[in-house]
């Protein structure tokens, strides 16, 4: 019996030693495996960090849109030279030069007709005919001057557009709307804003013109009313007093000045709108990019508090 018990005890001791040996072996292998993984991770991190250090940030190209515009304003054709489109120079200078020459000649003719009109007496039957010819010649002169200005503005716009042909530039949108209202909106492809811009400008311009005409009428009537000469009568036939004429004159002058301020405000808003849309033109407005904040019921099972009641809170959801 003793021999049998001793054998059983020896067997248990051997099993225990075997279990300890296996644990030591696996523990050593586990430590070696963890060390190897840690070494490989540090090596990979070092390589990635070194690669990132070697990558130099891209330097954005300088935008010379403003310089092109200012140069074209000071010296017509500067932008075409900078863009290496030399063939446009004869077109630009030929158009401007011819319109300026025709405008000067038309102005000389207008001055001669104005002098002839002023030399006529108030009872001359040809006075209206001379006046009509004089006004027509003045309009012709103004058209030639406007055409020369159009060539000048077109040269600056062409230089800005050609320079930014391969990219969208907020500076170009701002300059275009400064030169021609609504052109920056067209450049930003916001075509629906063009009627809004021109509708506001046309409305305010009409108000300026209308109030200015009535201001001039009452101003002339007031001068005739207080000149002390009984032979001169204003267009109202003396039916209005000087105070009434002065009141209406001041009212129309105030309305005219307010309309001018409104016209200026719309012009400035047109420039600012083109500038903002120019910056937002390449902005990513995909539906997959969103940030939503909405009310939500907080589940107490998902919190670390001991409170078992639900609570009202806010849920922030970012989608990208």
Question: Can you walk through the features of this model?
Answer:
This protein is mainly alpha-helical. Among the domains are: 62-167; 290-319, no CATH class. It has nine helices and two strands. It has helices spanning 2-54, 65-74, 78-82, 88-119, 127-163, 170-179, 183-187, 193-225, 242-280; strands at 290-298, 311-319. Helix 2 (65-74) packs antiparallel against helix 5 (127-163) and helix 5 packs antiparallel against helix 6. The longest helix has 53 residues, at 2-54.
Search tags:
320 residues, mainly alpha, 2 strands
Topology:
Elements: H1 2-54, H2 65-74, H3 78-82, H4 88-119, H5 127-163, H6 170-179, H7 183-187, H8 193-225, H9 242-280, E1 290-298, E2 311-319
Antiparallel strand pairs: 1-2
Helix pairs in contact: 2-5, 4-5, 5-6, 6-9, 8-9
Structural class: mainly alpha
What is the end-to-end distance?
A: 79 Å
Oligomeric state of shown chains = single chain
Number of strands: 2
Principal-axes geometry comes out as: flat
Number of helices: 9
Give the integer mean of the pLDDT values: 80
Helix content: over 70%
Q: Element order, helices and strands?
A: HHHHHHHHHEE
Order of strands across the main sheet:
1-2
Radius of gyration: 43 Å
Poorly predicted runs of 5 or more residues:
24-33, 47-53
Main sheet specs: 2 strands, antiparallel
Strand content: 5-15%
